Structure formats: C-alpha cells, structure tokens
Amino acid sequence: MAYTVVSVFPVTVDTEEIKKDLKDKGFDEANIVISKSKVESGLDDYQEDEQTKGFFDYVFAHDAEMLDAYRKHSIGRNNVVVYADNLEHARLAKTVLNEKGALEVYRRPSDRQDIPVGMTEEEYNGIIAKAKHNIYFLGSERVYHPNVVKGMDDPMDDLGSKD
Fold first, then answer.
1. Confidence band for 42, pLDDT divided at 50, 70 and 90
2. Can you give the chain as a three-state secondary structure string?
3. Rounded to two decimals, what is the model's pTM?
C-alpha cells in the first residue's frame, strides 16, 4: 500500500536540507514535494488556491477534523510531502521530518477509533494511506488570497457581465 506523509514546517527551516536528508535516506526526488506558502493578506480571512484545496480535500477526504487542522496549520508555513511505497518507508520519512523540526498538527480529540491497525495516532496524524495522485498535489508555491467579496458573490451577473 502507498502512503502520503504530510508535514508542516516554520518558514525559517531550510527545506533544501530536509530534501537532501530524505534523498540520503533513499527517497527519490520525484517523491518529495516542498511547498511554500505565500499569504497576500492577514492570516484570519483567506481563500486558498484551487490546487491547494484539491490536494487537502483528496488527502483528508474522510477526516474533516484533520482536513481542518492541516489547512489551518499550513497557512504561512512550508509543507513537505513525501510519497512512500510502504509503511516502513513512510515511518522513516516521518522520523526524518520530525527530527528536522516538523510542527505537530494535533488532531482534536474524538470518540472515533478509526486509526488503521499497526499505526499509532501520532503516526496517523502525519501518515495517510493514500498514493501519489497526478491531479491532486501541492505546487512549489501555495497562494492564499484575501477573502474579500466585491459586489455579488457570483462573479457574473444575470446578463453575463463581470462585477
């Protein structure tokens, strides 16, 4: 089974060094994604770009709590995503990322116990049993636009004119 390891880092961390360490541990460069966040306004009111939205929706499709946590923690920070062919490689990637200063993205407490067999909740919080997808991926730069509505919510009026 393939896995996706998602991590969040402060912008001050040297992501190229993290990438080098992962490559030294045997990870292919094509399976390491460094995505830097660009926020155009304050962190309170934003709208993420479609590529970022699609990635998070795909990876955390069945867990709204984790989706919300990773979305919020990723704004204004860097993400490192590693794709692994098996659980052993995913755990190795998670260990390297944690050693390099990955931030802990806590999952809110819940009564559900849907963590896969053989994984701790800590591992589950960053290791997702999903393969790399050619449509849903993070780009090298994520852009968060101000969530300011100009005029109508719909950019087209009933005559087909833009606001």
1. low
2. CCEEEEEEECCCCCHHHHHHHHHHCCCCHHHEEEEEEEECCCCCCEEECHHHHHHHHHHCCCCHHHHHHHHHHHCCCEEEEEEECCHHHHHHHHHHHHHCCCECCCCCCCCCCCCCCCCCHHHHCCEECCCCCCCCCCCCEEEEEECCCCCCCCCECCCCCEC
3. 0.72
